[in-house]
């Protein structure tokens, strides 16, 4: 998917998110990338959206979620930010059991999630916002804080959302 297509999708996502987790047709909209991956079209999303498989903290069953991410090529780390103030199921599942399976484009790997401290998470948020400007509105909604671009603002925001860092496990 090209950057324009992604930007339009991200704009729509921000508009559709609301304060509560999506239900009904909004939930289906956010789960559409999972279908694209199943149909073998995940490569068209791989530069912006990945799939994370977690283990349900209550059921023990595998759960799959599509998430926007930030990739640090130098360390091969995938940074995932939880919406709705860190109350997303996938994030709470990772907190209970940090083992994850990531599928990004045509690549798939096992990893263990780590949860960076607020200072590091704030720096990650800065990079995320710089590459995805529409996310400022989402961050303000999820954290209840106005965005002013300062390091302190981003650190405070990071304490109110969940950030997970996942690296491929090496054999």
Which helices and strands, and how do they pair?
Elements: H1 3-17, H2 25-38, E1 49-55, E2 62-72, E3 77-82, H3 89-96, E4 99-104, E5 107-114, H4 118-131, H5 135-143, H6 151-160, E6 162-168
Antiparallel strand pairs: 1-2, 1-4, 2-3, 3-6, 4-5, 5-6
Q: What's this, in brief?
A:
This protein has helices spanning 3-17, 25-38, 89-96, 118-131, 135-143, 151-160, and strands at 49-55, 62-72, 77-82, 99-104, 107-114, 162-168. The protein has 171 residues and is of the alpha+beta class. It has a single domain (3-168), classed as Pnp Oxidase, Chain A.
Query: How big a fraction of the residues is strand?
Result: 25-35%
Helix content: 40-55%
What is the oligomer described by this structure?
single chain
Largest beta sheet: what is the strand line-up? 1-2-3-6-5-4
Instruction: Name the average pLDDT.
Output: 82
CATH topology: Pnp Oxidase, Chain A
Per CATH, the superfamily is Electron Transport, Fmn-binding Protein, Chain A
Provide the CATH top-level class: Mainly Beta
Distance between the termini: 32 Å
> Gyration radius, to the nearest Å?
15 Å
* Shape, per Cα inertia axes: globular
CATH architectural name: Roll
Number of helical runs? 6
The tally of domains stands at: 1
Order of helices and strands: HHEEEHEEHHHE
Question: How would a textbook summarize the main sheet?
Answer: 6 strands, antiparallel, barrel
By helix and strand content, what is the structural category?
alpha+beta
Low-confidence stretches: none
Report the count of strand segments.
6
């Amino acid at each position: 998917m090209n950057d324009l297509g992604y930007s339009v999708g991200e704009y729509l996502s921000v508009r559709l998110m609301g304060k509560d987790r999506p239900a009904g047709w909004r939930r289906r909209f956010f789960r559409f990338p999972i279908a694209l991956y199943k149909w073998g079209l995940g490569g068209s999303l791989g530069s912006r959206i990945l799939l994370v498989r977690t283990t349900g903290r209550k059921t023990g069953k595998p759960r799959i979620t599509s998430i926007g991410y930030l990739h640090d090529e130098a360390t091969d780390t995938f940074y995932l930010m939880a919406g709705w103030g860190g109350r997303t199921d996938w994030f709470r599942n990772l907190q209970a059991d940090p083992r994850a399976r990531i599928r990004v484009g045509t690549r798939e790997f096992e990893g263990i999630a780590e949860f960076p401290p607020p200072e590091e998470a704030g720096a990650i948020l800065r990079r995320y916002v710089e590459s995805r400007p529409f996310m400022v509105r989402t961050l303000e909604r999820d954290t209840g804080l106005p965005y002013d671009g300062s390091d302190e603002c981003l650190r405070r925001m990071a304490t109110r959302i969940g950030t997970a860092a996942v690296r491929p496990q090496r054999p």
